[in-house]
Amino acid sequence: MFWKRKKPTSKTVATSDPQFEHAFGRKFIRNSHYSLPVDFEEMNRLDFQHFVLRLAMRGNYAAPIHNPHAILDIGSGTGRWGIEMAKAFPKAEVFGVDLVQPPEGSVTYSDERPPNYHFQIGNVTESLNFSEHSFDYVHMRLLFSGIPAVAWPHVVDEMVRVTNIGGWIESVEALPLRNGGPYQTMMGNWFLQTFQLRGIDPYIADKIPDMLNSRGISNISVKKIEVPIGKHGGRLGVLLSTDGNAMVKSLKNLVVSQGLATEELYDIAVSRVADESNTSHSMQPNVITFGQRIT
Ligand SMILES: C[S@@+](CC[C@H](N)C(=O)[O-])C[C@H]1O[C@@H](n2cnc3c(N)ncnc32)[C@H](O)[C@@H]1O
Prior knowledge:
By secondary structure, the chain is α/β, with parallel strands linked by helices. The protein has helices at 40-57, 80-88, 152-162, 182-197, 208-213, 234-250, 252-257, 263-279; strands at residues 13-14, 20-23, 26-29, 70-74, 93-98, 117-121, 135-141, 163-174, 217-228, 283-293. The chain has one domain (33-293): 3-Layer(aba) Sandwich (Rossmann fold), CATH 3.40.50.
């Protein structure tokens, strides 16, 4: 079996900044559960992914927010979502929090950034630097692969803690791809194995509604959006496959450094996945959950 587990290879190289390391030409946070790169290339992917998600969700949010005074985006990435929200709600103060500063050149440092968007370094698995009841709307999108299963109860506690009475919490998380071709399935299995090795729950999206409910959050709504990947999904499907093809490149270090595939096999799989996304009928499920803090 040519895909059987290989001896781990380690090609990480230290950088002058001890917070980061390089592998396969990409920049990563050292000793972090977050295993996607944090470089300019990844920022471009995240921006692109933002546009695709906005199209798929038909907007930037699903919760019934009207005149929020303060909005928090946890794991803000490039800052693009928060900046668009700051423009949509010019009377609100919008805060993005992330483990690392967005790289130079990202929208956070551009003329597009309005004065009511603020960025702060923070780690949601520790504690957020905001007092209780600070925000009317707390948003978190696509952090499932960076937060260990054991940390989720604390993360949800933090989201609830900083939400004002009457305020809304919204989570957008992906589930594993469905109905993939052989290489998409092989790649998906590598990801599932790395998640297992790192204590990540790839099905956390389905558990967030209960976690919010058990903390007294009311008016919970759950929407599942299944986006077709590739040509069978029309324009949106082709855009999503472009994002997916870039994402599998971003995850190379994770799979190869765990010894789940050789570098050569991984590179072959990346190009086969790109081909397959045009012929298979794969689907990407996303779960949007929102609810209101009433006590
Ligand atoms: C996949 S990106 C998604 C970015 C953004 N939410 C979006 O949808 O475009 C995940 C982001 O979460 C950040 N992140 C990961 N773990 C985190 C943590 N424990 N606390 C705060 N941010 C975190 C990463 O640095 C990265 O910018």
